[in-house]
């Protein structure tokens, strides 16, 4: 069935109505809003203008190569990249991280069973890279108070099979910068690469240096840092689909480049995991970065940072809620005491028009509430604080969300390795999440579901959530 323009627009509008808002500062995860209508407009214009171009062959579309090289250069200057550095533009932080792990692994063909040393707060993209690339993750507990990586424990975890050591600037879960200097020094002493994941901080932290001279060192200015990732579709406020991976030299980059002439078609040459890739996101990023400019990025970064600090201070006055760790950037992590739980607070905030992200416990790290502040959020700090206080009070009145013990026992008895459709369907039914046709039905309030997942070990949590996404991502009848 064909649809005319008006029908398509109406259908798109109807589908979009259920989505979280991408502008206005009310979605405190996933999206980043500069509050600059002109930046959004030029980004959309460039995205559309270059949507049909293809970054597969830079000789066919030299404009894309020119824009990529320019973006890599701007990013490198932000993070003190040395002379001779090299980089690539990828589709996002996960792809940048995958490529960094690939480059480190393939630079050491002598290591039969490679490992990488990660703080437990390292982004889940490293676990994806570990799974896909068969690089064993060696997890090191962070300091339970500061939530920062423990450099002594990280150094002790390096062995002859280690090909990469990782630090975050900042960590997504808690918004703190790891002690990069001793971690990178330990990696260098062992002859191992060190990657700094600055996907979320790389475009904002440099713009805070002048007002926060005590900021921990984390860039290429730190001896031993060999690669660094930073996303433009976060605090550069560009449309989604653009990250940059930087290497301290072209030699370090070489092991994630790919070429194949072993077929009768064109010789495939790739700098990233993608082959065909639309030039739209690159052009949009180039346009937005040059439209906003360094001075305005500094202003936007300070706005987001001020909002973060203001809310952190306000949380000190909210009974039942506290800051998990003093924030180093524009991310805030909150923890609840025994009188309530972050899952109910999250539901209550959504009722009040705010999306805040619940994060589940891991080892000795408690469940937390994650808030990402962008420039557009700054004007709403007082309102967020008031709604957080009201949401926490409501959560305290109802008490912590808990799942029925028999449901937790039923779920805990499942072997993640053998979870099948019938077992998963039975669990959905017991949890009240199955419709009459056995399909998944998500509740409006997620606290009981999140409390159940929080009570389970990570491996089982992963298996159950894979079952959820499998049920959600199926063709429409």
From TrEMBL:
Tagged with keyword Lyase: yes
Superkingdom of origin organism: Bacteria
InterPro entries tied to this protein: GrpII_AminoAcid_Decarb (IPR050477), PyrdxlP-dep_de-COase (IPR002129), PyrdxlP-dep_Trfase (IPR015424), PyrdxlP-dep_Trfase_major (IPR015421), PyrdxlP-dep_Trfase_small (IPR015422)
Cited SUPFAM superfamilies: PLP-dependent transferases
Sample GO molecular function, one term: aromatic-L-amino-acid decarboxylase activity
Alphabetized UniProt keyword annotations: Aminotransferase, Lyase, Pyridoxal phosphate, Transferase
Single Gene Ontology BP annotation: carboxylic acid metabolic process
CC cofactor: pyridoxal 5'-phosphate
Residue numbers bearing the N6-(pyridoxal phosphate)lysine modification: 234
Family to which this protein belongs: Belongs to the group II decarboxylase family. Sphingosine-1-phosphate lyase subfamily.
Name of this protein: Aspartate aminotransferase family protein
């Amino acid at each position: 069935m064909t649809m005319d323009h008006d029908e398509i627009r109406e259908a798109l509008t109807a589908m979009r109505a259920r989505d979280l808002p991408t502008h206005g500062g009310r979605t405190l995860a996933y999206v980043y809003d500069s509050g600059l209508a002109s930046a959004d407009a030029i980004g959309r214009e460039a995205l559309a203008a270059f949507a049909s171009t293809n970054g597969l062959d830079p000789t066919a579309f030299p404009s894309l190569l020119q824009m990529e090289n320019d973006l890599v250069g701007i990013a490198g200057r932000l993070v003190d990249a040395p002379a001779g550095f090299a980089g690539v533009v990828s589709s996002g932080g996960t792809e940048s991280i995958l490529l960094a792990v690939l480059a480190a692994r393939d630079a050491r063909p002598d290591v039969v069973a490679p490992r990488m040393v990660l703080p437990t707060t390292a982004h889940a993209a490293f676990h994806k890279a570990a799974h896909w690339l068969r690089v064993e993750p060696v997890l090191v507990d962070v300091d339970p108070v500061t939530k920062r990586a423990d450099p002594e424990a990280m150094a002790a975890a390096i062995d002859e099979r280690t090909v990469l050591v990782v630090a975050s600037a900042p960590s997504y879960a808690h918004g703190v910068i790891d002690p990069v200097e001793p971690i990178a020094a330990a990696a260098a002493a062992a002859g191992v690469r060190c990657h700094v994941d600055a996907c979320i901080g790389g475009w904002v932290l440099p713009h805070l240096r002048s007002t926060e001279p005590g900021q921990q060192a984390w860039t290429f200015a730190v001896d031993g840092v060999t690669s660094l990732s930073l996303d433009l579709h976060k605090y550069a406020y560009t449309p989604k689909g653009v990250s940059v991976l930087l290497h301290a030299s072209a030699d370090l980059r070489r092991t994630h480049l790919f070429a194949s002439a072993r077929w009768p078609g064109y010789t495939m040459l790739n700098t990233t995991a993608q082959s065909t890739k639309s030039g739209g996101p690159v052009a949009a990023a180039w346009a937005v970065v040059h439209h906003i400019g360094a001075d305005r990025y500094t202003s936007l970064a300070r706005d987001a940072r001020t909002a973060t600090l203001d809310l952190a201070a306000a949380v000190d006055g909210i009974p039942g809620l506290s800051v998990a760790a003093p924030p180093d950037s524009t991310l805030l992590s909150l923890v609840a005491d025994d009188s309530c739980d972050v899952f109910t607070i999250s539901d209550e905030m959504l009722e009040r028009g705010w999306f805040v992200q619940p994060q589940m416990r891991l080892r000795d790290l408690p469940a937390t509430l994650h808030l990402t502040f962008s420039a557009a959020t700054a004007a709403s700090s007082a309102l967020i604080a008031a709604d957080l206080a009201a949401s926490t009070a409501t959560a305290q009145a109802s008490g912590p969300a808990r799942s029925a013990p028999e449901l937790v026992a039923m779920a805990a008895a499942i072997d993640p390795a053998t979870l099948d459709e019938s077992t998963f369907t039975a669990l959905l039914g017991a949890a009240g999440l199955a419709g009459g046709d056995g399909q998944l039905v998500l509740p409006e309030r997620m606290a009981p579901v999140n409390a159940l997942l929080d009570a389970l070990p990570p491996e089982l949590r992963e298996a159950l959530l894979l079952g959820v996404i499998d049920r959600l991502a199926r063709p429409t009848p």
